[in-house]
Automatic annotation (TrEMBL), chain A:
<dbReference type="InterPro" id="IPR009075">
    <property type="entry name" value="AcylCo_DH/oxidase_C"/>
</dbReference>
<dbReference type="InterPro" id="IPR036250">
    <property type="entry name" value="AcylCo_DH-like_C"/>
</dbReference>
<feature type="domain" description="Acyl-CoA oxidase/dehydrogenase middle">
    <location>
        <begin position="121"/>
        <end position="214"/>
    </location>
</feature>
<protein>
    <submittedName>
        <fullName>Acyl-CoA dehydrogenase</fullName>
    </submittedName>
</protein>
<keyword id="KW-0274">FAD</keyword>
<comment type="similarity">
    <text>Belongs to the acyl-CoA dehydrogenase family.</text>
</comment>
<feature type="domain" description="Acyl-CoA dehydrogenase/oxidase N-terminal">
    <location>
        <begin position="7"/>
        <end position="117"/>
    </location>
</feature>
<dbReference type="Pfam" id="PF00441">
    <property type="entry name" value="Acyl-CoA_dh_1"/>
</dbReference>
<dbReference type="Pfam" id="PF02770">
    <property type="entry name" value="Acyl-CoA_dh_M"/>
</dbReference>
Automatic annotation (TrEMBL), chain B:
<keyword id="KW-0813">Transport</keyword>
<feature type="domain" description="Electron transfer flavoprotein alpha/beta-subunit N-terminal">
    <location>
        <begin position="23"/>
        <end position="211"/>
    </location>
</feature>
<protein>
    <recommendedName>
        <fullName>Electron transfer flavoprotein subunit beta</fullName>
    </recommendedName>
</protein>
<dbReference type="InterPro" id="IPR000049">
    <property type="entry name" value="ET-Flavoprotein_bsu_CS"/>
</dbReference>
<dbReference type="InterPro" id="IPR012255">
    <property type="entry name" value="ETF_b"/>
</dbReference>
<keyword id="KW-0249">Electron transport</keyword>
<dbReference type="InterPro" id="IPR033948">
    <property type="entry name" value="ETF_beta_N"/>
</dbReference>
<dbReference type="InterPro" id="IPR014729">
    <property type="entry name" value="Rossmann-like_a/b/a_fold"/>
</dbReference>
<comment type="similarity">
    <text>Belongs to the ETF beta-subunit/FixA family.</text>
</comment>
Amino acid sequence: MNFELTADAIAFQDAAHRVSAEVLKANAKRYDETGDFCRESLDALGELGFWGMNLPDAYGGFDPGSIAMSLAVEEVAYHCAATCSSLTAHFLATDSVLLGGTEQQKQELLPLCASGEKLGAFALTEPGAGSNPAEMRTKAVRREGGWHLTGTKHYITNGAYADFLVVYAKTDETQGHKGISAFLVDRHTLGIQFSSPEKTLGLRGSHIYEISFDCQLSEAALLGEEGQGFATAMAVLDRGRVEVAAMSVGIARAAYDDSLAWARERVVAGKPLCRHQGIQWMLAEMHTQLEAAKLVTYQAAAARDSGGRFSLESAVAKLFASEAAAKITDSAVQVHGGYGYICDLPIERYYRDARITRIFEGTSEIQKIIIGRAITA
Amino acid sequence: MKILVAVKRVIDYNVKIRVKPDHSDVDLTNVKMAMNPFCEIAVEEAVRLKDKGVATEIVAVTVGPKAAQEQLRTALALGADRAIHVETDARVESLGAAKALAKVVEAEQPGLVILGKQAIDTDNNQTGQMLAALTGLPQGTFASEVAVEGDKLQVTREIDGGLQTLELTLPAIVTTDLRLNEPRYAKLPDIMKAKKKPMDVKSPSDLGVEVASKVKLLKVEPPAERQGGIKVGSVDELVDKLKNEAKVL
């Protein structure tokens, strides 16, 4: 593994760092406090081309490679994890089209997604089907000239703000995962109902919705081929987990940087906190966890670009980086003491925002199943 | 008209500067580097002049280590057409940079040279003025507004007493103040396109100049820690302290 970052990767990191520090940072606290959707920050990223980071040239993107993309995602999460979550949810939707769509679907939709004109949402999870998507109950039945889609999805990031949703549904209820197909659903289709956004522990600027469907879709709404939905979703999640790992690293790095700066400044018993061994060891542990999380993330990103299967690497990265982010953000609160607990500083927000990374796009337990099966196969 | 824009690689303005433990220099280990903010304003102004049809070509130039190509690439992503890198690992100060830039001006014959008024690392505020002296070109420093009319350049300068407007004959040298413009962000697709734009790498000896500083850096100290303030009970006490302790009255 080559540890030298390419010029592209450095340039992407710089560009993301800049907009994150100057635009996203200014909005992050407000989004968290008011629960407003991260519209301004997300649109600022769209104007600068960030919505197309996952797409190749042929579809309006400019695929800089997964390491450059991971670094950019990390920078976005550093100042606003909520915006990062909405951005990566958009990638799940566009990755679904990229991996599962027909050539015509890709040509028609993806350039608009890359340029920041169309926002996507990825609708897989249901109240009774999270870690077990094969048990989903949303279904699409053939009806003259198209499909009749019925069912309920929940925890759908971007939901009511998305221009289109990629909805996974059973097209053959006699089959398990092989009976799942994916559909492109325009947000304004008659028969879609959005709940009000869920109230959440963290990522409050990135809304998640319950969505119910009872709608008629055209023949062209079927994404790619019938029965391929599950394979597409799993491949999309392999890619998405690298982004969750990068997001975890971003939140963790923010918590670590703030803790180190705080420990240098805050004086207790006549010397800075960082000169007390108890605190120094906490910082050492945070630093080590962070560096290790970065490496597994970059390794998974490199594997993602290698063209082969990378389910194992992405599961390792997602598991390790999200668990590390939980430990690091928890330690950050501890290093800050009472100041970490009050809402004036962003420390408690990092702690809340990091929590979901161990749950979404496959819980830590699901990652262990993936890793366990891969290494014992 | 061709515009030459000089850019410098400095520590990112968000980074808290730390001095090396042995006080030999500022610590640059694992420190985020970026384009000097005044240079960003210079690039932005050049791009705006090109957007207005005043400029036809923008050439970005830097004097510095190999890694400074990152900043040239940013300039290319922001709208420069090509770049010149005068590569050196030596510690370069204002005069060395100005000498190298003078040679580039001689070779490129730009109609306008735009530089930041100063770099946020050592804040010398000299390179533009020295370049003007070395090239014999008229200069408008601390510009808050720039307008080109034919072969004339109107430069509004921010000076101590207010604003001063100069008319210079092109070719000329302008250094930018903070309020000249608000620089745009680089778009990711433009960053990818930037790598296809030409970058010419030269050494100081190719240009026939010596850029290494003749000044020896002896010691770097961080600024003294600021002491906490006090509250005074009365105006009399305040005046007394200003007179006898602070000795400012």
